[in-house]
């Protein structure tokens, strides 16, 4: 069944609204679209100007999925697109036509494609479509079992102090999966990946029983891997307020530092779409730069 709708002056056709995309939770495509529509006021500022990579789940989180960088051929003409170089493309493409989610109709369009996860780089494009210098620094904290997000919180507090000593203010959010991320506004004082790697190695040296800065799986059990590599311009990180494809419709959720400081159990920092809408209504955008 297809349903024509008008969103902020744009005509869209929504389909399969009753399809269950999160079987364990009974969360349908209609609810995914509703979530993204309602969270848009706080989500869109973190997507605007950033080339979009999505992870689509047309048959739900238990079905096959695929990453998509190129805007689909059927993308409406009103969706902003930018053509950018694609160095190291796995499909041997010289360029990629990225969509840029600058408005609610584009967000709803992608939600209707079952693009559950929204991933963006740490840089934006200008009005002319050219890539701008990175404006964000990110550290992805990934726990190696039996470590959990509780241990990630401990490392996040260490990293917050290191960044503070460098004149940078960290903002925490859950990944919506096992770990969490810290962001900071970036002033291009040096190459961001090199800078992030240096800080990760510093913490690894100071806290070798808790922190690891290399991707080697064998080095990670019981420790928190500080992934600095997502500052590479070719890489992306899940956007604040994006859904994740877990058993439940969990969300990459901005946190208060007091929540990080007090976390004692992993389930304390698990937030679903309804939870996040309630948090936003109460607290606004905790990831705002204001």
TrEMBL record:
InterPro entries attached to this UniProt entry: LigD_pol_dom, MtLigD_Pol-like, NHEJ_LigD
Domain DNA ligase D polymerase residue range list: 28-287
UniProt entry keywords in alphabetical sequence: Ligase
Pfam families tied to this protein: LigD_Prim-Pol
EC number(s) per entry: 6.5.1.1
GO molecular function, a single term: DNA ligase (ATP) activity
Protein name: Non-homologous end-joining DNA ligase
Underlying gene: ligD
């Amino acid at each position: 069944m297809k349903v024509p709708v008008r969103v902020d002056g744009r005509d869209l056709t929504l389909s399969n609204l009753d399809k269950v995309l999160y079987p364990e939770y009974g969360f349908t495509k209609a609810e995914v679209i509703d979530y993204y529509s309602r969270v848009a006021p706080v989500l869109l500022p973190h997507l605007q100007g950033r080339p979009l990579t999505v992870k689509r789940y047309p048959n739900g989180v238990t079905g096959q999925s695929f990453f998509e960088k190129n805007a689909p051929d059927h993308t409406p003409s009103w969706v902003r697109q930018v053509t950018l170089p694609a160095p190291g493309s796995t499909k041997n493409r010289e360029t990629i036509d990225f969509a840029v989610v600058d408005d609610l109709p584009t967000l709803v369009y992608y939600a209707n494609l079952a693009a559950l996860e929204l991933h963006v780089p740490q840089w934006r494009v200008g009005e002319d479509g050219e890539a701008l210098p990175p404006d964000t620094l990110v550290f992805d904290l990934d726990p190696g079992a039996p470590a959990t997000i509780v241990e990630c919180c401990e490392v996040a507090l260490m990293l917050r102090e290191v960044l503070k000593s460098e004149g940078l203010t960290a903002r925490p959010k859950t990944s919506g999966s096992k770990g969490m991320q810290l962001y900071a506004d970036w002033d291009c004082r040096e190459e961001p990946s090199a800078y992030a790697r240096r800080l990760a190695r510093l913490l690894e040296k100071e806290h070798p029983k808790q922190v690891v800065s290399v991707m080697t799986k064998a080095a990670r059990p019981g420790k928190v891997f500080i992934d600095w590599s997502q500052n590479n311009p070719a890489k992306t990180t899940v956007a604040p307020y994006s859904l994740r494809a877990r058993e439940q419709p969990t969300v990459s959720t901005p946190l208060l530092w007091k929540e990080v400081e007090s976390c004692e159990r992993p389930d304390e920092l698990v937030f679903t779409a309804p939870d996040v809408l309630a948090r936003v209504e109460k607290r606004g955008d905790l990831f705002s730069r204001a």
